[in-house]
Specification:
Layout (H helix, E strand, L loop, with lengths): L1 E6 L3 H6 L2 H8 L3 E5 L10 H4 L5 E5 L9 E5 L5 E4 L4 H4 L4 E6 L6 E7 L7 H22 L4 E7 L23 H12 L4 E2 H5 L10 E2 L11 E2 L2 E5 L1 H4 L2 E6 L11 E5 L4
């Protein structure tokens, strides 16, 4: 089972750069995408149902903002759109596909945490999201299901996860409170950072986002903020990981992980 997570920074922009042609070649079982920046009525047929994929979307109410999607070769048995928290759901940040196998039911989630980099107000909204999302993560951890949460978490967890960690300790995405919260997801709830399980010492090759300022991409001054975070059972079945950088579809790069599992 191949799962891809990709922040598109605009689905229409990514489509124009060849994302869907690339996606069809990958033949991933599930592709989770974030930051659609579009409403359903804005999407072409290629974006709605590329090739053999079923497409599902949770768009933000605000035009040209946020939104998550999920493409699957197999139709999910259940689709959960949103968290049931109105102000969060208006921003289109959570989409869960449930596959109800009797021996090992699996949920795959496309997730987009808020960024706090634009203002103190947005950072406060990010902290509020984290506080209210944690009980939802706890429910998933205790659900008896295997769970893979794919997406842009907008947090670099450790010093290995960004190039200039020393100068970013007071910046959104690497604040001590954010990093401690993500540690709780792993240490208290038992979720596993699958990329780190497979590549515990990776640094520059693991980055998934680069600022558009300066020459961040050319110099690989990046951050690892896109994750596949999973329950221990399915995490133990992960076999390989890569970050695709041969083409650029957005300011993020797709994260690809293969699992010894069949949907």
């Amino acid at each position: 089972m191949r799962i891809i997570s990709a922040n598109l920074n605009g689905i229409r922009s990514a489509a124009s750069k060849g994302f869907f042609r690339w996606m069809e070649v990958q033949r991933a079982d599930v592709v989770c995408v974030q930051e659609l920046k579009a409403h359903i009525t804005d999407l072409t047929r290629e974006m709605l149902q590329p090739g053999d994929y079923y497409g599902y979307f949770h768009c933000a109410e605000k035009k040209g903002y946020s939104g998550v999607g999920l493409y699957s070769l197999k139709q999910p048995d259940v689709l959960v759109e949103g968290l049931g928290i109105p102000d969060i759901d208006r921003e289109g940040r959570y989409l869960e596909a449930r596959f109800e196998r009797p021996d090992r039911p699996l949920s795959i989630v496309s997730l987009y945490l808020p960024s706090g980099s634009s203002s103190d107000e947005r950072q406060a909204i990010k902290f509020d999201f984290m506080e209210r999302f944690f009980p939802q993560l706890e429910k998933l951890a205790r659900s008896g299901r295997e769970v893979i949460l794919c997406g842009d978490w907008n947090i670099a967890h450790t010093e290995k996860d960004l190039k200039n960690w020393k100068s970013n300790q007071k910046n959104s995405g690497f604040l001590p409170e954010e990093r401690a919260w993500l540690s709780r997801v792993f240490d208290e709830l038992g979720f596993v950072d699958v990329h780190r399980r497979l590549a515990p010492d990776a640094t520059g090759e693991a980055y998934t986002w680069w600022s558009n300022r300066g020459q961040a991409w050319a110099k690989n001054v990046g951050w690892r903020i896109d994750y596949q975070i999973a329950t221990p059972g399915i995490a133990a079945r992960a076999r390989s990981v890569s970050v695709y950088k041969d083409q650029r579809f957005s300011d993020h790069a797709p994260l690809i992980i293969d699992y010894d599992y069949t949907l």
